[in-house]
Design goal:
Number of domains of chain B: 2
CATH superfamily of the largest domain in chain B: Dehydroquinate synthase-like - alpha domain
Radius of gyration of chain B: 20 Å
Strand content of chain A: 5-15%
Strand order of the largest sheet of chain A: 3-2-7-4-5-6
Order of helices and strands of chain B: EHEHHEHEHEEEEEHHHHHHHHHH
Helix content of chain B: 40-55%
CATH architecture of the largest domain in chain B: Up-down Bundle
Largest sheet of chain A: 6 strands, mixed
CATH topology of the largest domain in chain A: Aldehyde Ferredoxin Oxidoreductase,  A, domain 1
CATH class of the largest domain in chain B: Mainly Alpha
Distance between the termini of chain B: 37 Å
Oligomer: heterodimer
Number of strands of chain A: 21
Number of helices of chain B: 15
CATH topology of the largest domain in chain B: Dehydroquinate synthase-like, alpha domain
CATH superfamily of the largest domain in chain A: Aldehyde ferredoxin oxidoreductase, N-terminal domain
CATH class of the largest domain in chain A: Alpha Beta
Strand order of the largest sheet of chain B: 1-9-6-4-2-3
Helix content of chain A: 25-40%
Radius of gyration of chain A: 23 Å
Shape of chain B: globular
Largest sheet of chain B: 6 strands, parallel
Largest interface: A-B, 17 and 20 residues
CATH architecture of the largest domain in chain A: 4-Layer Sandwich
Distance between the termini of chain A: 32 Å
Bound molecules: iron/sulfur cluster, fe (ii) ion
Number of helices of chain A: 28
Chain lengths: 652, 394
């Protein structure tokens, strides 16, 4: 087998309009500055995508990037990134996934994949290390994500694919892309493929072997990393209970979304906890590959084995709708996974609809689903679909399946629901309870219980995302940072954003951040109360103490390019600011860095502390730290400092 | 709506608190009792509750005349007679029942015999057959469910003659119901859940049936709310005394409610299933409750809907359209059952409770002959009963 030392700078560029392909080269300089994964992908997009492009038009571009660690066998390295312009938010969307496509892309010899144009016919793209084929996609059009993968990448040992389900075909704005049983979840990237008439992409990899430039150093770093993962408590409980391990903590912190973020806790929350799921559903691991943390699980629901719903699904399609029935939530999850829809946005949208019905903004009569063709026995031979009314109401699982299916099929009111909660609230009113930022529905943590997270949601590049700066980990899970204060939050958010961007560029799982930053000597052995006080009162010093050298060490040992912790963090900052800059060119400014009214004006029902997120107290400071002007725009001095060219060097 | 006429009666003194037991000796004194007899069962004694109980007497100077701690799970006339003999031999003058439903019923039976100075319980069975003022009776429930500490009834079986004797008289009402959480702390999760659902069924049925009245309504609503707020905690963390005390209070309130307005179809089915398949009463209540409500829906939709308020809280109630409240109430009950099932395996259908399908016709027949069907808002024939049983089967 041929070898690739660390990374490949060969970028496969596919033009669907012309059914042509070429290979371009990413520069070494860009590799140093943007690492790989999300970072380098962002730069590739910056150089190709004109501001103002229609996300569902021919000119939108979908970039798929493996990471530097991808294929090396480092812990949790089976991940890859997608970057494009989102049809849900109208700004840049990034998503990360641990399915098998990433490794196949890289071992086919490519350091990135750029998909441009629009196919006239429904198509599937297939490629290996030497060639690209444009195949007919009409026979798989309409199939779900599981069936499609079975059909188009039949040789599952040697091939892996990226596919969309009916939701992506129907341009549901929060449709996703599947690879194996993992997803590029957020931002509606499925519709980007759907709009290009692209049902799937198959990579036939395993042609190259990925070897680190400095194998001894790499082995040393890997050993240390594995050791940390084996020791750190949050990491361990994620392996045991999956992401649902969070339910218990979040409910206790009274920031579990219930009834569209009206309540913050529920006495039935234990039913959707990781502990309960493990006890009742014969769970076993089923993860991204490779992975050492192993948060992904399968289990038995409704009598068959299927994916255990993730924390976000359990909350957004569960507690936030007032539903705690695990089997029902599992059914919702399966519908979304097969149709290829983001469970967070789907759930957030349904919660808005339920509240809108309650408030009389949407008539309950709009909910009608087609009940299929075969159940009208008396009208044999008639092709007419009978329709069946359903209802949507908090606390009741009835109707949710109908609603999800009508969204995926783009039928009736499902067509409107498929636009997301922001679009719905613009049409019907009720923006105050559309729990989204920049068009992206909020994740399953109520920021009124953790102000840092509130700031993070408001300023996150892709919208109300918990993964831009998972600062609730410090505020809630680890108890290292007082949650209900504005103090130290701007510094923390900026730091975690930068570090996270670095991690997503290296492209290892974000969940390694617990083990890699908490287990090193200094953090581990500094007494908790000292660390806590430092973080609150002298955040700069606390953050300077934080040792995350494993990440740059992985980069250097794999690529042979020197990188210090400071360089790594700087690269992260560069990536974050570039994404922000691209968004500001799409019109984003401080006006968009807001939270839903519910988060800043209403308190959680029953909250004795009457907390709301003091966004005003944090955001100015954050802009200053970032080097944005008061409108939230990165100033040219900042771009210069980070060596971000203020005009892209358009290629192709 | 106010009934044109109704009666409501509850003269039982409630003593509730974390140290309520400590006040018992002086209360007994006020009742004129000097030498009480304690009736309990092996489970209660084994859990060390008798010890806690006697300690509260140690400093008071009052002596306990006798302790009987071998009441079987189903109260029988034999045991009642046995205890009566001990009572007389030790010159006791009052009774303390420390236990669950059967202990309390047994104590009520003993009270009949010692008061009437008789050895034949059968002649007092039926309604209002007791004429004399009874001996002081204190009831200290060790489960939170039956409500027997505030009810006018007792059921005792006569094994020799193979019949169940039912007694009903206001004279059977205890003088004091004493609620001390120390007495329920050791109740295992599944029992806690089952008895809680018995209490829940008392409150719910009393609120929807024909003999409901404003007084019983008030108790029922308060009981449901208190159960909802505490039952999950009581089952998941039995050591929380605050929660235990709340459950004891809720159970007593539910008992007062149904003692004055009676129960309905859920109990008819439960009694029948209990008699034929030996399902514990609380388990049966848990299984039948939502189905009973669905059966009654056509007759009392509004009343069922009103229960959503205590069952789900003001926010949920206010946000649920009136036309959907009854369904939501039943849905919330079902969710509660699932939660309890998750926590402790409390069965939610007859199959899980070990009933075989061939028994259903027999249960149906027994159910329509159960007296508790009389006050149910909707009449039930054998077919109806069988339909409900089939739904509740799996
Ligand atoms: S920890 Fe979870 S998300 Fe991360 S790589 Fe492993 S399975 Fe995937
Ligand atoms: Fe009962």
């Amino acid at each position: 087998m041929e070898e690739i030392k660390g990374y490949s700078n060969r970028i496969l560029e596919i033009n669907l309009t012309e059914k042509s392909w070429s290979v371009s080269e990413a520069s070494i300089k860009d590799r140093e500055m943007f690492i790989g994964g999300k970072g380098l992908g962002m730069k590739l997009l910056y150089d190709r995508l004109k501001p103002g492009t229609d996300p569902l038009g021919e000119d939108n571009i979908l970039v798929i990037m493996p990471g530097v660690v991808t294929g090396t066998g480092a812990p949790c390295s089976g991940r890859f990134e997608a970057i494009s312009k989102s049809p849900l938010t109208g700004i840049i969307a990034t998503a990360s996934c641990g399915g098998p496509f990433g490794i196949h892309l890289k071992t086919a010899g490519y350091g990135g994949l750029v998909i441009k144009g629009k196919s006239k016919e429904k198509c599937v793209v297939w490629f290996d290390h030497k060639t690209v084929e444009f195949r007919d996609g009409s026979d798989v059009w309409g199939l779900d994500t599981v069936e499609t993968q079975e059909k188009i990448s039949a040789d599952s040992k040697k091939e892996a694919s990226l596919v969309i389900g009916p939701a992506g075909e129907n341009l549901v704005r929060f449709s996703n892309i599947a690879s194996g049983h993992r997803f590029l979840g957020r931002g509606g990237l499925g519709a980007v493929m759907g709009a290009k008439n692209l049902k799937g992409v198959v990579a036939r990899g395993k042609h190259y072997k990925i070897v680190p430039a400095n194998p001894e150093k790499f082995e040393k770093v890997k050993k240390k990393a594995s050791l940390f993962i084996k020791r750190e408590a949050v990491t361990l409980s994620m392996g045991k209970f999956g992401t649902a391990t969070n339910v218990k903590f979040v409910n206790r912190a009274k920031m579990l979304p219930v009834w569209n973020y009206f309540f913050g806790e529920h006495d039935q929350a234990f039913r959707i906890s990781g502990e309960m799921i493990r006890e009742k559903h014969e769970t076993k691991v089923s993860t991204c590959k490779p992975c050492s943390i192993m948060c992904g699980h399968r289990g038995k629901f409704n009598g068959k084995e299927t994916a255990v719903p993730e924390y976000e699904t359990l909350t957004l399609l569960g507690s936030n709708l007032g539903i705690f029935d695990r089997e029902a939530i599992s059914r919702f999850n399966d519908i979304c996974n097969r149709a290829g829809m983001d469970t967070i946005s789907a759930g957030g949208t349904l919660a808005w609809v339920m509240e809108a019905v309650e408030k009389g903004l949407v008539s309950p009569d709009v909910f009608v689903s087609s009940a299929g063709e075969n159940d009208s026995s008396e009208q044999q031979g008639s092709k007419e679909r009978s329709s069946k009314p359903y209802s949507l109401m908090f606390g009741s699982p009835d109707g949710v399946e109908d609603a999800l299916e009508s969204i995926a099929r783009c039928e009736g009111f499902g067509k409107e629901m498929g636009l997301g909660s922001r679009a719905l609230s613009q049409k019907y009113g009720g923006r105050d309870f559309a729990i989204q930022v920049k068009g992206l529905e909020m994740a399953g943590y109520d920021p009124r219980g953790a102000y840092g997270l509130g700031l993070a949601y408001a300023v996150a590049n892709r919208g109300a995302c918990h993964l831009s700066a998972s600062i609730m980990s410090f505020e809630v899970f680890l108890g290292l940072l007082k949650p209900d204060t504005a103090r130290a939050k701007p510094q923390m958010v900026k730091f975690v954003e930068d570090l996270t961007c670095g991690v997503n560029a290296l492209q290892t799982c974000q969940f390694t951040m617990y083990a890699y930053t908490l287990e090193p000597f200094l953090t581990k052995y500094t007494p908790g109360f000292i660390l806590k006080n430092l973080m609150l009162w002298l955040p700069e010093i606390a953050l300077a103490l934080l040792d995350f050298s494993i990440y740059p060490d992985f980069f250097s040992s794999i690529t042979g390019i020197k990188m210090s912790s400071a360089d790594f963090l700087k690269a992260g900052e560069r990536i974050h600011v570039l994404e922000r800059y691209m968004n500001t060119r799409e019109g984003i400014s401080s006006r968009d860095d807001i939270l839903p009214d519910r988060m800043i004006m209403e308190t959680i029902s029953g909250d004795e502390k009457k907390r709301v997120v003091p966004l005003d107290k944090m955001i100015g400071k954050y802009y200053k730290l970032r080097g944005y002007n008061s409108d939230g725009i990165p100033v040219s001095r900042l771009l210069d400092k980070l060596k971000i060219p203020s005009e892209p060097c358009f290629t192709n | 709506m106010l009934p044109s006429y109704y009666e409501f009666h509850n003269p039982v003194k409630i003593m509730s608190g974390h140290k309520a037991l400590d006040n018992l000796p002086s209360e007994l004194e006020m009742l004129g009792a000097k030498c009480p007899m304690v009736i309990t069962d092996k489970g209660v004694a084994g859990a060390g509750l008798v010890k806690i109980f006697t300690q509260s007497f140690d400093s008071s100077g009052m002596t306990i005349g006798a302790i009987f701690d071998d009441v079987p799970p189903d109260s029988s006339s034999e045991v009642v007679e046995k205890i009566t003999a001990i009572f007389r031999k030790n010159g006791c003058d009052s009774l303390i029942a420390l236990g669950g439903g059967s202990v309390i019923d047994t104590a009520k039976g003993v009270n009949i015999l010692v008061t009437e100075n008789s050895d034949d319980l059968l002649q007092f069975s039926g309604a209002e057959m007791l004429k004399k003022k009874m001996k002081p009776l204190v009831v200290i429930p060790t489960t939170s469910g039956t409500g027997s500490e505030v009810t006018v009834v007792a059921v005792i079986s006569d094994i020799k003659r193979n019949l169940k004797m039912a007694f009903s008289s206001t004279r059977l009402l205890p003088d004091i119901a004493l609620l001390d959480p120390r007495m329920t702390l050791t109740l295992p999760p599944k029992m806690t859940a089952a008895t809680a659902m018995d209490a829940m069924s008392h409150a719910v049925e009393s609120f929807i049936n024909l003999q409901k009245n404003p007084m019983s309504d008030a108790y029922a609503l308060a009981a449901i709310e208190m159960i909802r707020k505490n039952v999950i905690n009581a089952v998941s963390d039995g050591n929380d005394a605050k929660v235990r005390l709340a459950m004891a209070n809720a159970s007593t309130m539910a008992g007062i409610a149904f003692s004055n307005s009676m129960v309905g179809v859920v109990h008819s089915l439960g009694h029948a299933a209990g008699g034929i398949c030996h399902i514990p009463h609380g388990v049966a209540m848990n299984i039948f409750l939502p189905f009973g409500l669905e059966y009654n829906m056509s007759k009392c939709r509004d009343n069922i809907g009103r229960l959503l308020l205590p069952m789900a809280g003001a926010d949920v109630y206010a946000r649920t359209p009136e036309s959907r409240r009854a369904e939501q109430m039943i849905h919330y009950l079902r969710e509660l059952r699932k939660a309890l099932n998750d926590l402790c395996g409390l069965p939610i259908n007859l199959k899980q409770a070990g009933v075989t399908e061939d028994k259903l016709p027999q249960i149906a027949k027994a159910a329509i002959n159960d007296p508790s069907i009389i006050m149910n808002p909707r009449e039930m024939d054998e077919n109806d009963a069988l339909e409900i049983l089939k739904k509740a089967f799996a």
